Amino acid sequence: MIMRFIKLTTAALALGMTAGVSQADDLRFTVWTGSEAHLSMLNEFADGFKATHPNTNITFETIPFADYVQKISLQIGGGNPPDMGWMLEGTAPTFIQSNILADVSDTLQATANYNFEDLSPSAMGLWQKDDAVYGVPFSTSPFVIFYNQSLLDAAGLDNPNELHAKGEWTWGALRDMADTLADAEQGIYGFETMDGQGYDGRVWEVLVPLVRSYGGDVWQGDTCTLNSATAVEAVQVYHDMIFKDQSAVPPGEMGDFFNGKAALTYTQISRASKLDEADFDWGIAPMPSGKAGSAPIIGQAAVVVFKDSPNRALAEEFLAYMTNEAGVARMAEFFPPARASVLGSDAFLNSNSRLTPSAMRIVANEINNGSVMPSHVNMPVIKSATRGTFDKLWKADADIEAVFTEACSRINKQLTRK
């Protein structure tokens, strides 16, 4: 299905322009969050926009993260494109090359006091092509460790920030900590993957932080390097946590950090809202270092307008409204900004009622020193082609090098395919 999407013909795109079902003053905005806190904030934007556009109704449509690209592709191919939505950095090149996203540069430049130059050039790198702008990042959010301070206190252990201050916060230290804190009798695991989806929808988010911190990467240029000795050694650390230590949540099991059933996880600060009713103390810390040192990872997402939106002009206005300086400052509670004026402000350090200013400094430092997840024009196909291969990693007797060699054979075909 992804392959069919990438090969959309001009005729299919033309169909999308005439077959949309949205009414003239309605906007359909796709997201992958179901968080009440996030949706409440998004509806604040809708209400604010409606004050100057009283006949406009904006509906936020939640699509599960793992299904997001495929379902949007189906909607576009079926002639019912959303008006606008969220888009991850990994799929940006595909959608841009396929002529799916609208160039919103004229609208942004014409919007009073938008201050386009305030957007970080590095953050905009994936979303600009020459003078065209295909999206505006609303989130340049680093991965950070979330830890259960109550469990650490009970075990008499230093927390990750204390280890970091001593230069001792490594993947080895995380493994030891997870092993100590795991308690099978209480149903508590030591470590949970990102959003509990590390074996399917978030498998790349498991592999990339480990591999880069050990000095490797998924590919270099047009050559997959995932089967390097460095990458294999890095992923072996996590594999041993699952099958030797039995401290990490294994495939098929649940160990939700946010319900106190895992001592450590990593994700982005937007998930902190899930801890509003937590009955334990918690904190955040930088990602651990590997053999090559610290290698923070940034997940990026942008607001985009789909080219064949039946309400394109209105959608572009709403994008500009959401991503102006005031809008970005409002979203900073959940989504670290791409605007330099906001990221460097005291307001940003105090923007999240769930996190202290010192915790927000960790976020800012990880952004300043981090790199984005891998992206490629054929990224949806790469992910689809390697999904079954990566499933083979999560067995006790897995040959990691063999699995990665098979994955590289699939990845290399797409890296050289234009």
Automatic annotation (TrEMBL):
Keywords, ordered alphabetically: Signal
Main location (coarse class): periplasm
GO cellular-component term (any): periplasmic space
SUPFAM superfamilies: Periplasmic binding protein-like II (SSF53850)
Family statement: Belongs to the bacterial solute-binding protein 1 family.
N-terminal signal peptide: 1-24
Subcellular location: Periplasm
Stated name of the protein: ABC transporter, substrate binding protein (Sugar)
Matching InterPro entries: Bact_solute-bd_prot1, SBP
Domain of life where this protein originates: Bacteria
Protein source organism: Reinekea blandensis MED297
Pfam families membership: SBP_bac_1
